[in-house]
Amino acid sequence: MNWQIEQGTAQAAAANPIPIQGTVPAAQFAGRNFNPYNWNSRVIQPDNWPPGPLISSPAAIIQQFQNGQYLHGLALVASWGTMWRRPATIWGNRPLATIYGVLQNCAANIQNTQSINGAWAMLTGNQNGQMGWSAVISSKTLHFLCRSLGFQQDPPVAIDNVVIRNHVWPVFLQAIPPAQRPMNWQGNTLNAYLRYMTAILTWARQRNWTTTDMEATIFDQY
User: Fold this and answer.
1) Which residue from 25, 54, 143, 163 could staple onto 213, CB 3.0 to 4.6 Å apart?
2) Residues whose CB falls within 8 Å of the CB of residue 81, separated by 6 or more in sequence, listed in order
3) Is the pTM of this model over 0.85?
């Protein structure tokens, strides 16, 4: 993908790799049992869920996005990412067709530009036709959307508050002199997220891992 690297973060991350035990990446969270009946209000009817027991696994999410079932994929992302507790922040009162259209436009924009920049604005922006989402749900959605489009080596990865911002960020800063510390990863701006991704990309390349490998291992160990 086309990534805008933030040089201050890249230099700090290269000189201060996040401490990781072992040389084999951790597996990404495998998902949880998913009851489609509980999510039917989140998809346009007829629901067209695949038959049989469902797990909100990465493979299932990617398959739904590849099939153009963007609302189904989003529901699975919310389950996978434990984000069903605050539905108003994701769906709110928006028509399902509007959400579908935004996600469809995100996929097209990513495919055309090989970048998340335009899609990030669509998901986090507060203008008419934008979703007003947090960086947390936006990053999780874009991770799987990009993978569904074939970006496997360096897709965007999830950012969260508890593990990444509140734990990994302070660990990263410990060895960096105060005057040399890069700007933080807080907030919902694209620049803040790109600083986070710069660190992930730097550490992943040091180990010859994918960004998915790097984030899953960090999340597992921290």
Assistant:
1) 25
2) 136, 137, 140, 158
3) yes
